[in-house]
Amino acid sequence: MKILLTGANGYIGMRLLPQLLEMGHDIVCAVRDETRLSVDKETRSQIEVIEIDFLEDPKDNVVPQDIDAAYFLIHSMSSSTQDFDDMEAKTAENFNKYVSKTQIEQVIYLSGIVNDELLSKHLQSRKNVEDILYQGDFNLTVLRAGIIVGSGSSSFEIIRDLCEKLPVMITPKWVLTKTQPIAIRDVIAFLTGVLGNEKTYNDSFDIAGPNVLTYKEMLHKYAEVRGFKNWIWTVPVMTPKLSSYWLYFVTSTSYKLALNLVDSMKIEVIAKDTRLQDILNIEPHTYKEAIDLAFKKIEQNLVISSWKDSMISGRFLDNLEKHIQVPKYGVLKDYKQLQVTQPEEVLERIWSIGGETGWYYGNWLWKIRGFLDKLWGGVGLRRGRTHPDKIFAGDSLDFWRVLLADKKAKRLLLFAEMKLPGEAWLEFKIDDNNVLHQTATFRPRGLRGRLYWYSIVPFHYFIFGGMIRNIAKTDQN
C-alpha cells in the first residue's frame, strides 16, 4: 500500500513509521517542515517527504494521487488554550480537500474516548474532527484512545516527573477522576491492525488497556513499579488555573498543554467498546506492564520519540530554516576556539551535551537559569533530551532547539527557547584543522536586550570558557 502519514514527526507518527516500513508499505510523510523529520539516513531513503501546513489553504499537486490510505495524526491542543478547536477543525477540512483528488480508500484517525455527555473542550474538538472526516470521500476508521503510556509520551513523562520528584503530594480533586490508560505499543498494534481491514471501515472504536484507574491510583502504581512509596492527599481548593501552574512548575509540560490537560482530567475517560480487540485479536497490556515496558526502552536508550521534541513544547513555532543562518550584523558574540587532538572524541561529547550529561561546566548555574526561565513562563531545563547521544534537527535540548546537527560536517547549531529580550544561538564546529569553534550569538531586542547581555558577560567568561575546555580535553577524569 501507499500510505500518507500526517503528523509524521509527532510522538505517534514517529512510532508508527518504522512499523509501516517493516510491513512493506510505501510511506509518504506529510510534515510542515521537512528539516523537522527526525529520522536516520536509512529511513529517509525509504520514504517520500512532502511539506504541507494543513492550516493553510490547500495547494495543487502536493499529495500523490496514488495514495491508498492515510493516517490523520494532527492535533493542536498544545498550540493554544483558546482556539485550538478551530485550528483542528480547519486542518481536518483542508485534509479532506487534499485527499479528495487522490484514489484514497481509507483514512485512520486517532481520536480520544468521547463517551461522556459532558466533554472537555479537547475531547469535543476531537469529536468534531471525527464528524468532519466522516464527510470525506473515503472509508473512515476512528480509534478513540484515553491516556497513552509509553516512553516519551506526555502522560507518562508527567506521571514520572510527579512521582520521582514529589514523594509527598497535595493534589487537586481531579486526581480522583477515573481513566483507562493504554500502552503505546497497543496503540500502534491497533493502528496497524485496522489498515485495509474492511471490518473497521466507517466505524469508531474505543481502544484502552484492561485497567480502570483514578489518576491517584496511577501515581501509586507507578511508584510500586519503581520500587518506592508515595503519599497523596487531595484538596478541593485547587482551581483549574492553579492546577495548571502546579503541573507546569513540577513537570516538563508546557503551560498551554497543562491547562488543556487539566480541563480534560475532570472528565472520566473509560472505554465502553471492546469490539476491536476481538476483531484484531489483541490483548492490551496492563498499566503496570506499560510502565515496565517504557522503562525498558529508556534503560536501553531505545526511545524513538518524545512529545518534548514537538515544536509546541517550546516557544519556537515557525520554520527552522529561518534561523539556520546566524546573523552577522547587529549582534553580540562570545567566541572561543581551541585546538583538539582527538576530534572524534570531542565530537561525541558535543553530541552528548545537555540532558543527563549537562553542559560540561557550571551545571548549577545552568539549573538556576532554567529555574528562572520557568518562573518567567519559559520551558526551563526539564525537557532534557530524547537520546543520550543522538541529535536530529528539530529536537529539544533542555531550553534549546536543535537547528542543525550535521555530524559529517562536525557542526551543531542550537537556538534558544528560553525567555529572552532577543534571540540567541549556540554553535559548535570542528574545522579541517581540528580546531573547535564555540560561538554564542545574541541578537538583542532594543536597549533591554543589550543591558541583559552585558549584565551576564562575567558569567559567560567562566561558563563558556570552562565549557569549551571540558569539551576539548581528551581526559574526562
From TrEMBL:
<dbReference type="InterPro" id="IPR016040">
    <property type="entry name" value="NAD(P)-bd_dom"/>
</dbReference>
<dbReference type="InterPro" id="IPR021295">
    <property type="entry name" value="DUF2867"/>
</dbReference>
<dbReference type="GO" id="GO:0005737">
    <property type="term" value="C:cytoplasm"/>
</dbReference>
<dbReference type="InterPro" id="IPR036291">
    <property type="entry name" value="NAD(P)-bd_dom_sf"/>
</dbReference>
<dbReference type="GO" id="GO:0004029">
    <property type="term" value="F:aldehyde dehydrogenase (NAD+) activity"/>
</dbReference>
<protein>
    <submittedName>
        <fullName>Epimerase</fullName>
    </submittedName>
</protein>
<keyword id="KW-0812">Transmembrane</keyword>
<feature type="domain" description="NAD(P)-binding">
    <location>
        <begin position="7"/>
        <end position="149"/>
    </location>
</feature>
<dbReference type="Pfam" id="PF13460">
    <property type="entry name" value="NAD_binding_10"/>
</dbReference>
<feature type="transmembrane region" description="Helical">
    <location>
        <begin position="451"/>
        <end position="472"/>
    </location>
</feature>
<dbReference type="Pfam" id="PF11066">
    <property type="entry name" value="DUF2867"/>
</dbReference>
<dbReference type="InterPro" id="IPR051783">
    <property type="entry name" value="NAD(P)-dependent_oxidoreduct"/>
</dbReference>
<keyword id="KW-1133">Transmembrane helix</keyword>
<keyword id="KW-0472">Membrane</keyword>
